[in-house]
Each structure stands twice: as C-alpha cells, then as structure tokens.
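We store sequence with structure; for instance:
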Amino acid sequence: MANYEKKVIVFIVEGQSDKAALGTILEEYFETCEIKFVVVHGDVTSDVHISKDEIVKRINELVDEVRKRYRYEVSDFLKIIHITDVDGAFLQDDRVREADVDSIQYHEEYMETNHVGKVIRRNHHKREMFFKLRQTSQINHIPYRIYYNSANLEHVLVGELKPFTDEEKMILADEFAERYEGKASEFISYISGAAAPGSYRETWDHIEREVCLIKRCTNMNLIFSSPASKNIINPKTP
C-alpha cells in the first residue's frame, strides 16, 4: 500500500447491527486511522467446527481477507479489535434449564433452552475459545485484543435481557448510533457505567468468575483507554 498515510484498525464483530451501532462512534474516535469492519454474521467462538487450536488461524484468515481486498501490507495494520458476546458462557451447568422456548432465553441467574446438553457444550466450547483468545496478544505480528459484552451488545447498550429479532437489533443499533453521533466521549462515559473493573486481564478474570449471574457488563471501555493510539501514523508518511 504505497504512500498510505493512515494505519488500519480491523474491528471484528458478530453482526451487521454491531457495526451499525458502533461504526460511527469508532470512526469518530479513531479518526486518524482507517477503520475496517469484518462482520462475521455469527459467532466464531461458538463454531464447534473450529477448535481452540484453530481459532487464531481463523481470525488471521478474516484479517487476511481485508488485507488482500484493499491491497494492504501487514505493516499497515495498527491492531485487531475483536468484539464478542459472552452469551452466558460462564454460567454453571445447572443454571442451564430446560424450557419450551424457540431460542435461548437469558435471565440474570439462569438461561432457558429446549436443548440443554447442546447449550452446555456450546458454553464449554466458548470458554475454551475465550481463554485462548484472551491470552493471544498478536496475530500475524499484528496486536490483537478481544473485548466482550455480557450477555450481548444489546444487553450492554439498552440494559435488556431478551431475544431481540434481527430487525429489532437493527432498529436499536440505528437509534443508538444516532444518539451518540459526534459524541464519542458521551458514549465512552455511558458504557463505562457497565464496565468490569480493572485491567484487560482483570476484566476477563471478572467475567470468568461470574458463574452464578449474567450481569450487564463489558470491557469495551478499554478499547478507548489509550487516546494516543488514535494518532499513530504510518511511518512511511513523509
């Protein structure tokens, strides 16, 4: 990428509504960087076809697709920021309860499903993935961090634990983006009200200890904890 002035930050998110809700805020805050979104249309940490030994490779493939599409060099990337939903993965197994429901229903102290064994296996799989990824600091020599929302982004943004439809998620995302357009500092203050305490490592320790509750909790505030990172320019710039 010859004479490109801006470093690239890749944001990996699970759905289009995540990009809609956070896109303008992130672009405003990191205005001196080039922001690229990878929308997975799902959750790579829940994919049972990907083992904990393969997850880093899969994320590298996602980033490499961005590199090839825009003809970047690896050196053009500043960092990879992965935003994921916890989905109650750390709940104790006996708090996954049988119920006649169409999809998983999340409650503060338990979750309901008509596929208890399957959901328990999913939870165990997600825990393994989270442990692997929280220990990963680089992918293909690019700094990497994974940040979470519990139980999901909608829970953090609007404080409700309910199975929103895709249409409802997009409506909420658009409303949220409009509310905080041009107000990145207000957004950071808002999500900090649900922030897990401590450093990056400590926030992951915190959510892993929450085996009895699905609390409204996030460590996305740490994405914004180093304002100086906004101003890192490609060293190839004259």
